[in-house]
Each structure stands twice: as structure tokens, then as C-alpha cells.
Amino acid sequence: MTKPTSGDFTKTAGWLDWFEGPSKPRFQVPAGSVDAHCHVFGPGAEFPYAPERKYTPCDASKQQLYALRDHLGFARNVVVQATCHGADNRAMVDALVHSKGKARGVATVRRSISDEDLQSLHEAGVRGVRFNFVKRLVDFTPKDELMEIAARIQKLGWHVVIYFEAVDLPDLWDFFTALPTTVVVDHMGRPDVSKPVDGPEFELFLKFMRQHPNVWSKVSCPERLSVAGPKALNGEQAAYQDVVPFARKVVEEFPDRVLWGTDWPHPNLKDHMPDDGLLVDFIPHIATTAELQKKLLVDNPMRLYWPEEN
Ligand SMILES: O=C(O)c1cc(C(=O)O)oc(=O)c1
């Protein structure tokens, strides 16, 4: 059944809706696990999509997100502002304030935001801002504006989440390494997994993490990065094998600086929509011991998003 987008919106042509009725994961995540990268979309009738957006999704509400959390066995979420909402953080904030303290957030803000509004975001549970450099998702924002935002949010103890493609890392290196906060990379900086894991492109990413202990990585989105599959569908227990060496390398070399998230509701997938239960079954392929799994799913996200509970 295709899912709606409410309000005055029409979904982007070819939009793939999130997976209905995901399987129950075989891998039982440790108690207190955090889905540290997921989004809400609208609903458009309540929280309109931003005029400057590059895509219009189907709705994906907070209730649907939290039902998925419970189904998959997770305890908490980090809700990351999706680009289809621009710098209007209301849908994300609404999800946080209705989470009973079980969700924190990452916002998108402009230089024009007031200190009072930053403070309100903090009170709602926001702990980071997202800077996006993926050209198909956002228009360019000048670096001096981003650096000014980074300096302001540093005072709140927040971090910066960056999203970019592997080929752009050399050009962005100086800016990223000058950021004054903890820096969290979305989806391992989108490596081209058809290239060798020990080749120059991924080595540059590893060097970025090695040389800069403030840099963390989400080892998420195998469904976006995989070229060869197999897909997380129809009970597949060994999905996205071509992504495994990349994610495992990051988890094993930087066990205290990695996060994992579903990326539900998976914006802009072109090829297939994964069964989120089977995505959870991908985790033990990349974090192969109970200790690594607990760091990835519990200890690291708790340290970053709920430090007061440590
Ligand atoms: O690759 C993407 O299309 C994508 C988009 C968004 C977003 O629109 O916020 O977030 C993601 O994590 C990934």
C-alpha cells in the first residue's frame, strides 16, 4: 500500500515509501540501545515541508518512528533534522518533546537564529547541528556562516554532524578539521564500496578519524552504500556484504567513536526499501563482539546525547 503525504504536497516521482511490517530482528540489541540516526517527515498537513526542499517524501510520523523503535527492541532515538524540512525544526522538536525523554535531536539552523531559540532547542533535547554538503540535498551555505554557528553551539556543549560524499573530503578537510566541537560523520562519509577498503579514498577517511580524536562516525546506511547487495529483504541474513569490510574497519579501529542508526524512513532510496528488522541483523556483521555492540549501540550514543546519565 502506498503511503500518503498530507497537506498540499505531492511526493517526488518514484518515491519509495518506508517498509510496512518489518520483521522482528534475530539479533537482540543490548538493553538501552539507541537508534542514533533516524528522521520524521511531517506529517505535511501539520508540519509543512520546506519551500527550499529538494524532495517531497511520504509522511513518517513520530508515532510511527516510536512504534518501530519498540518493535526493533531499541530504547531511544536520535532524531536528525531531515533536509526536506530545511531549518524549520518543528517536526523534529515535536517528536522530541513527545518522546518522554527517550529522544534527543540534531537540528539545522541558520546564522539568523537567536540565542533564545537555540536555548529552546536545547531544552527540547537538541544536542547538535547538522551541516550538509551533499549537493543533491541542499543549497550551498558559506563556510563562515557554518563556522559562526559552530562557535555558538559549542557553548551549549553541542556537536556538529556533517554529511558529505567521499570524493568531497579533500576539499572540505580544512573546514572540517577546524571545527571546534565533536564532529560526527554521517554514513562513514559515503565511501564508494566498489573501491578497495584499503585504497586511498577510504584511507583518507580513516586518516581523518585517526588524526582527529574529536571525529566520530555513524556506521549506518549499508542500504545506501551497497552496490552488490544482497538487499535486506525476504529474510536475508547476510545483507550488504560489500559494506561490511568498511563498517567493520571503522568499528574495530574506533570502537569508542562510532554510532549506529536505522536511517528510517530512508529518504531518497532509488533501488529498494529495506526491511528495518533485517537492517538490525546487519549489526553483528560489523560489530562482532558483545563488547563492540554495547559500545556502538549504548555507551557511545549515551555519552554523546545523554551525558548527564553517565
Ligand atoms: O542520502 C540521503 O538522501 C539522505 C537524506 C537525508 C535528509 O534529507 O536529511 O538524510 C540522510 O541521512 C540521508
From TrEMBL:
Protein name, as recorded: 2-pyrone-4,6-dicarboxylate lactonase
Superkingdom of origin: Bacteria
GO MF term set: 2-pyrone-4,6-dicarboxylate lactonase activity
Lineage, broadest ranks: Bacteria, Pseudomonadati, Pseudomonadota, Betaproteobacteria, Burkholderiales
InterPro entries listed in its UniProt record: Amidohydro-rel, Aro_Compnd_Degr_Hydrolases, GLI/LigI, Metal_Hydrolase
Domain Amidohydrolase-related: 34-305
Entry-linked Gene3D superfamilies: Metal-dependent hydrolases
Enzyme nomenclature, EC number: 3.1.1.57
Species whose genome carries this gene: Hydrogenophaga palleronii
Keywords: Hydrolase
